[in-house]
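Regression test case RT-17, inverse folding.

Input:
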């Protein structure tokens, strides 16, 4: 029986290496197991104390070592990128590894693809524990405004767009996140992204590695995000809520590391919310933990929703897993906030979920074994949701003790006003 022909894909893997000579062999061994194989592998020796020698190393692809003085990770990646002649390129750190199918999704030489960037999942290994992570990139602008979706070796890039961009070699990002900055630049140039739902690599976080230097990482994260956000043509509710989500988590770091940008960021957030926001329930929740003065700058008291989401958009989002996880995540946070706010103050005898939808179904699953749950929906009254009868609002006696979680996001403001006019305590409406 003849030997099976090894297939190659028109791709190069660039590996920067600084004093990780022994770990580099593990990375190369993982590449040798790839199917298909890359045509070329370029190792950039970034001034290692012991020079990397691979002249006699048996390898199934073209293997090149480029030596340079120690210039840093970004410069090493750029050195490798300048030497790439294939259609696709992937970057792998010397202390990480690829799984056999990491290049299996790349189009063959004869296939024309309109995709500029493929991104796949990864196994995060830290302190002896492993977990698989799948980046959620539907709209790349929204994904990047939420934060850095994935390490750089989860990406395969079409080469022509990259060589004019390159990684930032300035001292500004010396602490890390050069890869996050690189992806943001691609998104601003309207590159097309595709998510591959498979795990392609192992990302190992070691003590002492660059990614473990917390203060530097915090600083560079907000520097990259701030620069990206202020250049972004934010054009949708999902994008502005992604930005607000990041700001809610990292506003203290922005104030600490880029204080000169704080006013510009809050003003840009305010304008983006005024132009694109469609759900005041989400906005109020996201701003709740901010200092009142800061929240007022972003969403003044007299602010109003300009463009509620049309029904067809909401229907699409319920079917879109990338958006669904964000919406559900916020709903769960609101539910948790409700429980925390009421804990120890007053007994929750019953909970009203206003809006018989998928979010209500999820919350019903969580809460119905703990407390009595009433589902209210004027459009679906008389039906059932997971065995619970759906009531019309007129059938429910609302009192000051009633606890309501509004799941009908589109009608949040109208429902909220209706409840307050019927004597419900606003501190018990979520």
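Golden output:
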């Amino acid at each position: 029986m003849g030997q099976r022909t090894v297939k190659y894909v028109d791709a190069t893997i660039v590996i920067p290496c600084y004093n990780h000579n022994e770990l580099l062999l593990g990375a190369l061994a993982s590449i040798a197991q790839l199917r298909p194989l890359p045509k070329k592998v370029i190792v950039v020796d970034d001034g290692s104390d012991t020079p990397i020698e691979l002249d006699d190393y048996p390898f199934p692809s073209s293997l090149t070592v480029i030596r340079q003085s120690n210039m840093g990770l970004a410069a090493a990646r750029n050195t490798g990128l300048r030497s790439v002649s294939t259609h696709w390129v992937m970057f792998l750190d010397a202390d990480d590894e690829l799984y056999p199918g990491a290049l299996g999704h790349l189009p063959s030489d004869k296939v024309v693809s309109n995709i500029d960037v493929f991104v796949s999942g990864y196994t995060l290994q830290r302190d002896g524990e492993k977990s698989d992570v799948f980046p959620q990139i539907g709209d790349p602008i929204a994904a990047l405004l939420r934060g850095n979706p994935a390490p750089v070796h989860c990406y395969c890039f079409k080469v022509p767009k990259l060589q004019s961009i390159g990684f930032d070699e300035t001292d500004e990002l010396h602490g890390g996140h050069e890869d996050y900055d690189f992806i943001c630049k691609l998104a601003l140039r309207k590159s097309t992204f595709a998510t591959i739902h498979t795990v392609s690599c192992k990302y190992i976080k070691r003590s002492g590695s660059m990614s473990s230097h917390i203060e530097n990482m915090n600083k560079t994260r907000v520097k990259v995000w701030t620069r990206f956000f202020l250049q972004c043509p934010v054009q949708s509710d999902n994008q502005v809520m992604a930005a607000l989500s990041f700001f809610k988590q990292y506003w203290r770091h922005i104030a600490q590391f880029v204080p000169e940008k704080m006013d510009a960021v809050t003003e840009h957030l305010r304008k983006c919310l005024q132009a694109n926001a469609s759900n005041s329930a989400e906005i109020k929740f996201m701003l709740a933990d901010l200092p009142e003065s800061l929240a007022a700058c972003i969403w003044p008291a007299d602010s109003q929703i300009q463009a509620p989401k049309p029904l067809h958009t909401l229907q699409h989002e319920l079917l879109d897993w990338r958006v669904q996880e964000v919406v559900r995540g916020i709903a769960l946070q609101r539910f948790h906030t409700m429980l925390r706010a009421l804990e120890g103050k007053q007994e929750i005898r019953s909970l009203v979920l206003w809006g018989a939808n998928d979010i209500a179904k999820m919350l019903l699953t969580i809460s119905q074994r703990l407390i009595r749950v009433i589902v209210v929906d004027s459009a679906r009254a008389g039906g059932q949701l997971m065995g619970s009868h759906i009531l019309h609002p007129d059938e429910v006696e609302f009192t000051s003790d009633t606890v309501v979680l509004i799941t009908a996001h589109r009608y949040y403001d109208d429902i909220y006003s209706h409840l307050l006019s019927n004597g419900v305590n606003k501190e018990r409406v979520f």
